[in-house]
Amino acid sequence: MELFEPYNITVLVTGFIGLIIIIQLVVADVAAIRAKHPPGYPVKPDHDSFLFRATRVHANTNESIAAFILFALFGVFSGSDALYLNAFSGVYLIGRIAHMCFYYGNFKLARSISFPVSLIGLIGMFITALMSWV
User: In the structure, what pLDDT confidence band is assigned to residue 3 with cuts at 50, 70 and 90?
Assistant: First the structure.
């Protein structure tokens, strides 16, 4: 466990990302039930529909979660600077939470701004880990 000690924030963020995914799944499922949406059928693309936005929130997180996990592992196993890896993983988490909230609330501009925040977190994690190899 000593290997992970300096990266305790990144490990904690990983747990919170898991929690966010569960929350998004539950919100999407409840929205589908309330809309009487038949399971297995595609959701009609309509940003005015909360059900559509809820399914997109979950899908958007799924699109970036693999990169987060891989960059976190890359950083930890490369012995990268823990301060930066922890900070950028926090930036990713903040960006994902903001994106989720703004998407649910249909705040399009704020949602569009929060997405690159999480992207900056991911790119920062990668660069931090890569710097260990230079």
Answer: confident
